Amino acid sequence: MLEVGCGAGRMTGSFASLFETVYALDISQEMIQVAKSESGAVLEFVFSYFVMQHLPTEDLALAYIREMLRVLKGG
Asked: Out of 25-29, 31-35, 70-74, which region has the weakest mean confidence (pLDDT)?
C-alpha cells in the first residue's frame, strides 16, 4: 500500500492493520519521523487525501497521478 502525503501518519496505522506492507511518503522529513513514531508500522494500494491542493501547479498534480497509475499498472 502506498500512502502519498502521510503527514503525521494519522491513517498509516490503520492501513498497517489492513495491508502486509505500507509505504508512507511525505515531503516533510519531520512529518515522516512523527508518522514512524506514531504508527509503529513498517513503512499495494495508493491513498492520497487532501494532498494535491498543496502542489504548486495542476500539471504537477497530474504528473503525480500519472505516476501512481503507472506504478499500479499490472505487470
From this structure: 31-35
